[in-house]
Design goal:
Elements: H1 9-17, H2 25-29, H3 40-55, H4 58-66, H5 71-74, H6 85-100, H7 106-118, H8 122-144, H9 152-157, H10 163-173, H11 182-196
């Protein structure tokens, strides 16, 4: 899949940059053509935006921005790939280590990523839920384009435990908005939820 050779600073940055070209496999598997398919970088950027709109926590936004960096090396591994979860975790941990080790602040990024992967802190639990919720929001966009992606709605909802995020999800799924504007509406709902907390 990939070599475990060390990489330097420039190669590390180039590796991260490749996330803009890596398409999300779940959408491709559902017939979304490559030219319309969300990239891993786009997904990461939108989840980071969502995290900041919802919490105002820069660390949460940073956690979401880096949460899929290992995919630049190992690819977007989905449940359909039948990769053992322990093996996936090992591959992604090794990949993240390779990416961040040349960076002057790599230890801090690695620790933040490990916090996300551990899913034990409040921040990590919120980040995980926002990651899943973003899939539902993107599904609304693809639904408007005529793709059958409705399976993402129960998948996302089943992974939400935060009451405010459940309310945001339910509001979005009423589809009282132009589905093409789902992310704009989503970010507005998150900002409103933050004001009410």
């Amino acid at each position: 899949m990939f070599t475990n050779r060390p990489i330097g600073l420039v190669d590390s940055l180039r590796t991260i940059y490749e996330l803009k070209n890596l398409k999300r496999q779940g959408w491709l598997r559902r017939g979304v053509p490559d030219y319309l398919c969300e990239s891993v970088a786009g997904h990461s950027y939108r989840t980071a935006q969502a995290g900041f709109y919802y919490s105002g926590d820069a660390q949460l936004a940073k956690m979401l921005l880096i949460h899929d960096w290992p995919e630049a090396i190992v690819g977007d591994i989905t449940p359909h790939d039948n990769v053992n979860p322990d093996e996936k975790r090992r591959l992604e941990t090794d990949a993240m280590n390779r990416i961040v080790s040349p960076l002057p602040y790599g230890d801090r990024l690695m620790n933040l990523w490990l916090e996300y992967e551990g899913r034990e802190t409040t921040r990590a639990k919120t980040a995980t839920q926002l990651d899943k919720l973003d899939a539902a929001v993107m599904a609304l966009v693809y639904e408007e384009k005529g793709f059958e992606v409705s399976e993402f709605y129960p998948y996302a909802r089943d992974r939400l435990t935060d009451f405010s995020l459940l309310q945001v999800f339910d509001t979005l799924l009423r589809k009282d908005h132009d589905l093409r504007d789902s992310h704009r509406v989503y970010f507005g709902l998150l900002a409103e939820a933050r004001r009410q907390i």
